[in-house]
Design a protein that fits this description.
With 440 residues, this protein is an alpha/beta fold. 46% of the residues lie in helices and 17% in strands. The protein has 3 domains: 4-102, Probable tRNA modification gtpase trme, domain 1 (Gyrase A, domain 2); 121-202 and 373-433, tRNA modification GTPase MnmE domain 2 (Four Helix Bundle (Hemerythrin (Met), subunit A)); 209-362, Rossmann fold (3-Layer(aba) Sandwich), CATH 3.40.50.300. The two termini are 17 Å apart.
Length: 440
């Protein structure tokens, strides 16, 4: 394969920029542009000079010899001074001397193709890079370190043994009893199914860790929704005025509270309106209510319920919701039987109570990130299909022949293999690595 190159650190002004090459010609290309007094040896940091046109840059070179490298190929890394122009000049020089610009995620893709990482471990790398909370990064590290891989391989080993047992029965029927063999297979697949369901039961926790809780802030115009959003964020993100209908589009901002990400969605106030733009915003608000995990319904504590308030209470009665009575800094005239939180967005009073209420709605204890937690939709889909195949096998063990059960077991093994990448399609593999940043 061609020798690839990319900048592995963010482009911009900084102390260091790293430009990475991977491929058979890495050392050869480096020799054309880099001079030093020492012999270049694997896993040794070498100080030298990078030469390109009028450029003579003092930098460090590190050589990782195949197969003991991230990609499994020869890797050369140049650690030069940070700066957009300088970094691009180093990259340009390496391309002119035989390297080609890497695609997104191509270094990790080569690591996968060369057997250095499994597909699920590679996805763990993405999660670690994109993590926004401690829980998210721990889940990413667990995936990257192979905890899911180990679990899946153990399940595949059980399935492999059962395939071998059944195939033995088919090849030597005089030595093995088919009914007895299938009875043993049934017991083993029950164990596999139980383990798969344990993994699937972590998916809800995984969703909280990976995507967070989507909380829509709704209410009639000028009730203080945007003020509450700003108070929750601790910054002025949404425009706040006394003019009704200021918010005409969806604004989404996130915070991390007790290791859980909460995505606050500030919506347009719901009311009858002839303004086309405002009507579009109101329609989006109604869709946001349906798609949210929880609704924060804001009411004005300084006034009695209006028809608009009553409509919103009815619209959200079957949704998970928290009712917030805002403007308690004014005279409180609103009496409400439903459980609610009294706040003043203006004075930042009881705002933390909103965060805690959201947390309690979804969390009954501390999230345990020490084990395997499913945070990846692809893994959940594969395990769900594998669980369905287990059900089909168990339903068929009593009334199907051994050859049919063998076929179903091979289908189960293949579905589990999609998680590790052993049986996943090339197009899916390409799509996964395209999510990586350039240079990773």
């Amino acid at each position: 394969m061609k020798t690839i190159v990319a900048v592995s650190t963010p482009i911009g002004v900084g102390a260091i920029s790293i430009v990475r090459m991977s491929g058979d010609d890495s050392l050869k290309i480096a020799g054309k542009v880099f001079s030093c007094k020492e012999k270049i040896e694997p896993r040794k940091v070498i100080l030298g000079t990078f030469h390109y046109k009028e450029l003579n840059e003092k930098c460090l070179l590190v050589y990782f010899k195949a197969p003991y490298s991230y990609t499994g190929e020869d890797i050369i890394e140049f650690q030069c001074h940070g700066g957009e122009f300088l970094t691009k000049e180093v990259l340009k020089s390496l391309i002119e001397n035989g390297a080609v610009l890497a695609e997104n995620g191509e270094f990790t893709k080569r690591a996968f193709l060369n057997g250095k990482v499994s597909l699920d471990s590679a996805e763990g790398i993405i999660d670690v890079i994109n993590a926004n909370s401690e829980a998210e990064i721990k889940a990413g590290f667990n995936l990257m370190s192979g905890k899911l891989l180990s679990k899946v391989k153990s399940l595949q080993n059980i399935v492999t043994d059962e395939i071998a047992n059944i195939d033995m029965t088919l090849d030597y029927p005089e030595h093995d009893d088919e009914a007895q063999t299938l009875n043993h297979t049934e017991k083993q697949i029950i164990k596999v199914k139980e383990e798969i369901e344990k993994l699937l039961n972590t998916a809800n926790t995984g969703k909280l860790i990976k995507t967070g809780i989507n909380a829509s802030i709704i209410g009639k115009p000028n009730v203080g929704k945007s003020s509450i959003l700003n108070a929750l964020l601790g910054e002025d993100r949404a425009i706040v005025t006394d003019i009704a209908g200021t918010t005409r589009d969806i604004i989404t901002e996130s915070i991390v509270y007790k290791n859980i990400k909460i995505n606050f969605i500030d919506t347009a106030g719901i009311r009858e309106s002839d303004n086309l733009v405002e009507k579009i915003g109101i329609d989006r608000t109604k869709r946001a209510i349906q798609s949210s995990d929880i609704v924060l319904l804001v009411l004005d504590s300084s006034s009695n319920l209006t028809e608009e308030d009553e409509e919103l209470l009815k619209l959200t009665q079957n949704k998970k919701r928290i009712i917030i009575l805002n403007k308690i800094d004014k005279k409180n005239v609103l009496s409400l039987k439903d459980r609610h939180i009294l706040v003043s967005a203006k004075n930042n009073e009881n705002i933390e109570d909103i965060k805690e209420a959201i947390y309690q709605e979804f969390q009954t204890g501390t999230i345990d990130t020490s084990g395997v937690i499913l945070t990846n939709v692809r893994h959940i889909e594969a395990l769900t299909k594998a669980n369905d195949i287990c059900k089909n096998i168990l339903n068929s063990c009593k009334n199907s022949t051994a050859d049919i059960i063998s076929f179903m077991l091979k289908e189960l093994w293949s579905e589990l293999g999609k998680i590790t990448g052993e049986t996943e399609t090339e197009s899916i593999v390409d799509a996964i690595f395209s999510k990586f940043c350039l240079g990773k």
